[in-house]
Amino acid sequence: MDGVAGLNQPAIPAGKTFVYEFTAKRPGTFMYHPHADEMVQMAMGMMGFWVTHPKDKHPLIDVVQRDFCFLLSAYDIEPGAATPKVAEMTDFNLWTWNSRVFPGIDSLNVRLNDKVRVRIGNLTMTNHPMHLHGHEFVVTGTDGGPTPKSTRWHEVTADVAVGQMRQIEFVADEEGDWAFHCHKSHHTMNAMGHDVPTLIGVDHTGLARKVNKLIPEYMVMGERGMADMAEMEMPIPDNTVPMMTGQGPFGSVEMGGMFSVLKVRRDQQPGDYKDPGWFKHPAGTVAHEYTGPLAEPARFSAEGGQSMPRERKPATPTEVKVRKPTSHGAH
Ligand SMILES: [Cu+2]
After folding, report:
1. Is 49 in contact with 30 (CB distance < 8 Å)?
2. Helix or strand or coil: residue 227?
3. Rounded to the nearest whole angstrom, what is the distance from the C-alpha of residue 61 to the centroid of ligand 1?
4. Lowest mean per-residue pLDDT among 22-26, 213-217, 271-275, 313-317
5. How confident is the model at residue 176 (pLDDT cuts 50, 70, 90)?
6. Gap from CA of 186 to ligand 1 centroid (Å)
7. For residue 221, how far is its CA from the centre of ligand 1 (angstroms)?
8. What does the domain layout of the chain look like in residue ranges?
């Protein structure tokens, strides 16, 4: 019944209901999605997660106090639109966990010294290196089921390839608010224009004001980078999330997409998944500004040199034609 329409079963016509019956033979984490008009249906978010728990104690499955599931999916939704574009192959603009993006996603709230399991299934069209701060974890399960103990080593990032599932486990033995996110930096951002010029280092003081007289609500990318956009919460169409946003205890978090927070608390009750609020950092544990003298950067004398000497030739005038990519239209 692990089927493809036409190959193993007739396709399910619109408005009909089909019955699938099978024996859940082994414990593990599984994903399901249609194999009919697949690209369109998955671009619209038709997919789900399935967890089979062992009936009895399993030698490779530890008891955990917290068990989280993340199904990774991606969408291409024009800012202001409500329907995903279904013909997209690689250039998605919303990277989601359980079809949610930061900050519209729950934090992972656990009790200090809980054993925590996170199951991550990837039904997007690219891989996602999932990264946890503050802890090291082991991969205890794959699509094939629980991994033998001899194959487990500690990591802080586990790549989850297309169509794969990875189950990670760790003991939450560090109190705090710990980032948990995909390590691809554009996957912790929400929809943005791709044709944004890089204006880092460009002084455009007064420019936005002048352009604003002609085009109200115009905004240039900040000279210090895109984070300016998060701080300013630029005007966006309805049904759109900001590219980067989220208000943390120390200011703008400047995140989006595949990002959440693991909150480890001493007084979180067993089985209580409620958000405990921000962590109260003990005195002396938060990074702070250094106001003492700054040393000159130490530079190695050969820095910027080459591993082999260049052939010294007089320069000849050469004409170079460079074609700059202008859009993502040619994927
Ligand atoms: Cu990612």
Report:
1. yes
2. helix
3. 27
4. 213-217
5. very high
6. 8
7. 24
8. 28-187, 195-239
Q: 28-187 domain in CATH 2.60.40.420?
A: yes
Beta strands in the chain (DSSP E): 28-32, 48-52, 66-75, 94-97, 108-111, 115-122, 128-132, 137-142, 145-146, 154-155, 157-160, 165-171, 176-182, 245-248, 251-255, 259-265
Burial class (CB in 10 A: 0-12, 13-18, 19+), 45: middle
Q: Per-residue pLDDT tens for 104-143?
A: 999 999 999 999 999 999 999 999 999 999 999 999 999 9
| Residues 89, 164, 123, 22, CA torsion sign | positive
Q: Residue 162 pLDDT > 90, yes or no?
A: yes
Whole-number Å distance, alpha carbon 120 to ligand 1 midpoint, is: 12
Give residue 3's Cα distance to chain centre.
30
pTM greater than 0.90 = no
What's the rounded mean pLDDT across residues 215-244? 64
Amino acid at position 87, single letter: A
In contact, 161 and 127? CB cutoff 8 Å: yes
Residues with Cβ within 5 Å of ion ligand 1? Answer: 128, 182, 184, 187
Q: How far is the CA of 70 from the centre of ligand 1 (A)?
A: 12
The band of 31, judged by pLDDT with boundaries at 50, 70 and 90, is very high
Element (H, E) at 212: helix 207-214
Residue 95 Cα to ligand 1 middle (Å)? 7
